Amino acid sequence: MSLVVAKFGGTSVADYGAMNRCAEIVLGNPDCRLVVVSASSGVTNLLVELTQESINDDGRLQRLKQIAQIQYAILDKLGRPNDVAAALDKLLSRMAVLSEALVSARSKATMDELLSLGEQCSSALFAAVLREKGANSSAFDVRRVLRTDSHFGRAEPQVEQIALLSREHLLPLLSEQVIVTQGFIGADEAGQTTTLGRGGSDYSAALLAEALTASAVEIWTDVAGIYTTDPRLAPNAHPIAEISFNEAAEMATFGAKVLHPATILPAVRQQIQVFVGSSKEPEKGGTWIRHQVEDAPVFRAVALRRDQTLLNLHSLQMLHAQGFLAETFATLARHKISVDLITTSEVNVSLTLDKTGSDSSGQGLLSEALLQELSQHCRVRVEDGLALVAIIGNRIATTAGICRRVFEVLEPHNVRMICQGASPHNLCVLVAESEAAQVVKALHENLFEGA
Ligand code: ADP
Ligand code: ASP
Ligand code: MG
């Protein structure tokens, strides 16, 4: 059996009409037997607000009401089938219980269980939409197979366990039914609910595809593929027909929100092709991410990652000494922080923190404890208000004239940090957040909109 895993993002399952369009896509491809859904658009954001310490009772009730409205509107259009209505009622009352529990005890495990309820609602509803169209379909609790560690908020998937569990519990169902399951969520060994970090449904789809050795993963979203830059930033951005795993991984890592940064890893491990397209306009086609591609241009795309933190570490210990970087990185590793960009001088190290794995509930990565630990062996300065702009392409480190072209465009802007040379696929600059959109637009115009 050739298997395609289709993932539908928040806007694709936002309401009954959107779910119907997605159901047509699924039923139009007999190989599409496993569907992974995000929470309906806006629901995870509301759930995150429910986890915030500052929320009061009125705010809490208002959020719960908003979520119920989104989900019941879909249920109503389905004609309120009893089983789905009962499942939804149960999930929504659990939401109320958990959000209240957080008022007295702020537990990360409770937060993750609360955040997981959006995907649980949308998967129950989407399976019902498929059944309404005559398909044999049911919702499947992904926590039975998507095993993670217990790092609530950004749990690490356990790939071997996921493969074993998926083959045992999920695979046998796929020959009979179209199974709808949840993205973004998992469970640890003790059965406690975990989440993979914001945008994690793409990653879930790729992990399940890997576990079941699927032939393709389809990421259905609100844009017709991966564009040369975020089409919201540059109206002339255009979709890329085919892109390599390496380039797509760099794009996702450096902020192209269309794909969660980790999505590519399972696909690369199993050489599974990934397709990105629009569930609103499937006829427009989209982007195929493959191992081998025909065209490998020097400039492929520009990505933007906002809200960057720069850590400046100063220590005279670095002067003609060894071990300072090792000590610094060991401290960061203990706090589960991965470093993104790095530049060094004789007595300074500047680095940006990789926020791609940041917490589902939006908590910052820089804790007081980490800063204190670092301060024990160096002077620490933290700079915020920065954005990372990455130019993605091929042979960037070995083609003459690239920096000249890029820096000509950047002339009116202060470049706080530059990274180039480690990868043939990118050149990154750190600029002020306030100028970032302008920088992306100007780079796109110059590098991609020329005659
Ligand atoms: P979903 O809810 O379907 O997962 P997301 O909002 O996470 O969708 O991702 C889709 C969005 O990603 C698009 O609406 C677009 O604004 C943004 N985006 C950022 N960079 C790119 C890019 N290079 N190509 C396409 N979309 C991009
Ligand atoms: N619903 C989650 C989020 O909004 C996961 C996802 O959509 O990928 O982050
Ligand atoms: Mg997404």
From TrEMBL:
SUPFAM superfamilies: ACT-like, Carbamate kinase-like. Its EC number is 2.7.2.4. Keywords: Amino-acid biosynthesis, ATP-binding, Kinase, Nucleotide-binding, Transferase. Residues 389-446 form the Aspartokinase ACT domain. One of its GO terms (molecular function) is aspartate kinase activity. It catalyses: L-aspartate + ATP = 4-phospho-L-aspartate + ADP. Residues 3-277 form the Aspartate/glutamate/uridylate kinase domain. GO terms for biological process: homoserine biosynthetic process; lysine biosynthetic process via diaminopimelate; threonine biosynthetic process. Pathway: Amino-acid biosynthesis; L-methionine biosynthesis via de novo pathway; L-homoserine from L-aspartate: step 1/3; Amino-acid biosynthesis; L-threonine biosynthesis; L-threonine from L-aspartate: step 1/5; Amino-acid biosynthesis; L-lysine biosynthesis via DAP pathway; (S)-tetrahydrodipicolinate from L-aspartate: step 1/4. Transmembrane segments: none annotated. It is an enzyme of class 2 (transferase). Belongs to the aspartokinase family. This is Aspartokinase. It comes from Shewanella oneidensis (strain ATCC 700550 / JCM 31522 / CIP 106686 / LMG 19005 / NCIMB 14063 / MR-1). The lineage of its organism: Bacteria, Pseudomonadati, Pseudomonadota, Gammaproteobacteria, Alteromonadales.
